Amino acid sequence: MASLGLLQYKSASDMHVEEQAAAQQMAAEEERRRQLMESSLGAHIRRSWESAKVAKQEVEYRLLDCLRRRKGEYSPDKLAAIRKEGGAEIYMMITATKCRAAGAWIRDIMMPANEQPWGLQPTPVADVPDEYVMPVFQQLQQQAMQAQQEGQQVDMAALIEQAREQVRQLAQEKAEEAAERHEDTIADQLAEGGWSEAFEQFVDDFVTYPTGFVRAPILRRVPTLEWLEGWQPVKTTTIRPEFERVSPFDMYPSPDATSIDDGAFIIERARFTRMQLNQLIGVPSFNEEAIRRVLEQYGQGGLRDWLWTDGERAELEGRGHEWLTHGETIDGLIYSGGAQGVTLLQWGINPDEIEDPLAEYEIEAILIGQHVIRVRINRDPLERRPYHKASYQPVPGSFWGQAIPELMADIQDVCNATARSLVNNLAISSGPQVEVYEERLQPNEDPTNIYPWKIWRTKDGNVTGNNAAVRFFQPSSNAAELLSVYDAFEKRADDATNIPRYTYGNENVGGAGNTASGLSMLMESANKGIKDAIRHIDRGVMRRVIEALWLYNMQYSDDPSIKGDCNVVARGSSAMLIREQTNMLRQQFLQLTANDIDMGIVGMEGRRKLLDSAAEKLDMPGLIPTQEQMEQNLAQQQQAQQAQLEAQQQLEQAKAQAEVAVKQAQAQKYGADAAETQADTQIAQQMAPLDAQHLLAEIAKLIAETQRAQHDRTTVESPIANPQQSGRPRPVGNAQVPARGLSNLPGTMPRYAGTGP
User: Fold this and answer.
1) Residue 253 has what pLDDT?
2) Quick one: pLDDT at residue 606?
3) 109 to each of 17, 201, 587, how far by Cα in Å?
């Protein structure tokens, strides 16, 4: 710094040095504040986790016991006692069968092929945005002004009531449209975020452990593809909600918690990979610098914070090799809990987010080692934590419920003991046992070498009386009694779990189950038990997850068409079971109404609805045409029938005309034949006298010529006629003898003596 009298000035280099010093000071202050925040917040999370671990110690034993029973394995202490006593180590898998049956039953109801166990319904009085209300009121104003200009009296009360009704109808229509679009959006988010896999795993936990957990939604940056012109792929990233099942072993509620949201905190022990941590870079509310420090410190070799349950848990879950190695994963703690505004300010939260320092705020934080990679105030408008739980059998006032292995623990133990006794008894009583009086055997006799027709060499005993050297006896068999005890307790498992054997295909039902109607009544009764379990899933998991997605979309979605006032409806517990029963009754109804009388009552439209509903339940949507398609098909059929009728009528008409023409032609032909016949007759009649006369003339001419020739011949032969020489009789008088062959000619007239031609 230089001075000119009272005037001082700084060079550019001096100003640069001061700026660097100020920047370093600010960076140092920021680092100090960050370290203070991490140290104080990290210490708070560590203290909370330690208290939660102590409170959960008893639950850890229960979790391990449930897992063993599901896997069909004895505890180490029990197995050691069994081996000490000797005998069979058999484990009857009754618990595993019940858990699998319950899980399959629940998944079949909650995960149908063509339906959703949830939905969005518009509220009875839906909120209407201003962009929908203003056009209605503008139209109302224009109508009033036009009426006044025309000199008409305006009833403002009626117009206002009309406008209100229009707004109400418009609001309801918009809310229904928004609800339908929002359902499609949520369904797409569930499919892309891995909800099906997470829910299937949750169901297994639900039937196995005292409580099952799901975490949702989890915002992650995931890689995606975008297609440019010419279908060229370009790799990009997007932030989307995802869903995960959380193991009950990794959940640590506060000691005072009875639910997810009422306790002071809840902590999840999470395990991150390097890829997962890299995907969190750039996600809002995550500290990029802290994540990079974690990767730098624990990226090679990982970070494992082993608990006393991890070894046996890994063995039971089929990951026995994991606890022997360090691995590459990084353990962290995800903290969700309340904190006072003053504490948040001390932790370094932005003061702009703290409206009241004395108020209680819900925060989310992630601690890995000594680094807090995330801390933010919960953005959920209802301040609910991103975890959801349900128990097969809740326990009022307790965070943890009861699972199927716990409900039938005593029954499983009795069945195991009975089965072990049965196997041991069958082994002992399978053959005779031998008692040997070794003092009476010769030294070279081996009592263990037994074979047919063996000769035993014995000697007298030293005691009074000679006992048999070898004696066989048969142990008694108690198989029948043990089997009856086993069957009795196995049946008790149905009552303890509300999962009867006939629900998963066991044929040995007996009683009412031997008939179809009786089995239907039993199934309806069994549905009541599983219905309660599904209701717990609806309240604790399904409704909360869908509401969380709905709130997320309402806050952050860029699509205004899906935003509307809706209520989330979970339909797994009631509607699903009712639909199963309704489907069976619908099939019966279809069979009963398949007659002309009932069809006349139900009608085509009613029948179409029944068939469409039945086809949808059979996973054949679109098989039955809609009402519009039916009307079109009916119109086409009527047109075709009309055209066919017209064509048939034309054909019959043409046929009739052809027949008439044929008959006319025949008549004409008959007339012509008759005329021809009549003409021929007339001609014959006219020609008959002429023919007769001509014939007589010809005959007369012929006779004359014959006589002339005969006369000429006679004259030549005998010039002097001597009638006596011929030897023939002479004709009487002037009669002449006709020539041969002419006496029988038609038309020839008989000749008589004395007559001529």
Assistant:
1) 96
2) 72
3) 72, 15, 19
For residue 36, how many other CB atoms are within 10 A of its CB? 13
Residue pair 283/98 in contact (Cβ under 8 Å)? The answer is no
Give the pLDDT score at 667: 77
Cα 624 from Cα 512, distance rounded (Å): 37
Boundary (domain end) residue, out of 672, 694, 711: 711
In a domain, 227, yes or no: yes
Contact 121, 179 (CB under 8 A): yes
CB burial of residue 437 (10 Å; 0-12, 13-18, 19+): middle
- The structure tokens listed for 414 are 């009795």
Residue after which a domain boundary falls, among 364, 390, 416: 390
Low-confidence ranges of the chain (pLDDT < 70): 1-12, 15-16, 25, 27-39, 125-134, 136-137, 153-156, 159, 320-327, 461-466, 505-526, 572-588, 592, 596, 598-602, 613-623, 673-674, 677-696, 699, 710-757
Contact (Cβ atoms closer than 8 angstroms) between residue 592 and residue 129: no
SS3 sequence, 661-717?
HHHHHHHHHHHHHHHHHHHHHHHHHHHHHHHHHHHHHHHHHHHHHHHHHHHHHHHHH
Token digits of residue 296: 């730098």
Q: What angle do CA 376, 377, 382 make, to 5 degrees?
A: 145
And the tokens for 335? 């903290």
The answer to whether residue 583 sits within a structural domain is: no
Encoded tokens for 148: 């006044």
Residue 716 identity: V
User: Could you tell me the end-to-end alpha-carbon distance of the chain, in angstroms, rounded to an integer?
Assistant: 189
- Per-residue pLDDT at 311: 82
The alpha carbon of residue 468 and the mean position of all alpha carbons in its chain are separated, in whole angstroms, by 75
In the chain, the percentage of residues whose pLDDT exceeds 70 is: 74
Residue with tokens 């025309």: 150
Residue 732, pLDDT score: 43
What is the spatial distance between Cα 425 and Cα 418, in angstroms, rounded to a whole number?
A: 10
Instruction: Determine the pLDDT at residue 747.
Output: 42
- Find, among 368, 378, 340, the residue nearest to 356 by Cα: 340
Count how many domains the chain has. 2
24/2 Cα distance (integer angstroms): 25
Strand partners, 361: 339
CB 531 within 8 A of CB 523: no
Q: How many residues are present in the chain?
A: 757
In a domain, residue 255? The reply is: yes
- CB 385, CB 335: distance < 8 Å: no
- What confidence score (pLDDT) does residue 380 get? 85
- Work out whether the CA dihedral 231, 233, 239, 242 comes out positive or negative: positive
- The enclosing H or E element of 471 equals strand 470-473
Strand partners, 121: 567
Q: How many beta carbons lie within 10 A of that of residue 146, not counting itself?
A: 11
Distance CA 10, CA 565 (A): 64
Peptide bond into 217 cis (omega under 30): yes
Q: What local confidence, expressed as pLDDT, does residue 584 receive?
A: 65
Would you call 64 helix, strand, or coil by DSSP? helix
CB atoms closer than 10 angstroms to residue 91 = 21
Query: How is 204-271 classified by DSSP, letter by letter?
Result: HHHHHSS-EEEEEEEEEEEEEEEE-TTS-EEEEEEEEEEEEEE-GGGEEE-TT-SSTTTSSEEEEEEE
The H or E element spanning position 314 is helix 310-316
SS3 state of residue 236: strand
Q: At what angle do helices 516-537 and 94-110 cross, to 10 degrees?
A: 80
Q: How far apart are CA 260 and CA 252, in angstroms?
A: 11
Name the residue range of residue 680's domain.
642-711
pLDDT in tens, 442-468: 888 888 888 889 888 888 766 545 678
Is residue 502, in this structure, part of any structural domain at all? no
Give the integer Cα–Cα distance in Å for 57 and 49.
12
Both structure tokens of 592? 């009963």
State residue 57's pLDDT score.
93
Amino acid letter at 166?
A: Q
| Dihedral Cα 297, 300, 305, 308, nearest 10 deg | -160
